[in-house]
Amino acid sequence: MKMNKTGTVEVAGERVEFQCTVDGTRLEGSIDGRAYSVEVRKLGPGTYWFGGNGSSLEASVTEDKDGFAVTLNGHRIPV
Asked: Is the pTM higher than 0.85?
């Protein structure tokens, strides 16, 4: 299934423009004009693995009273 998203989010007090397309396990997109292409896997509810260019990371997405938060490498980022 292919999914396309575009929009603006607030990250750490700054507004950030994004665009992304997910097609199977491939995510391609841009954030503030920087292009990315990575493999993505859902590990569990709200937990995702991203890999590309010899690097990988795990991200957790949680909902809180102010919206959502993404946790990367132990750092919580409100979005």
From this structure: no
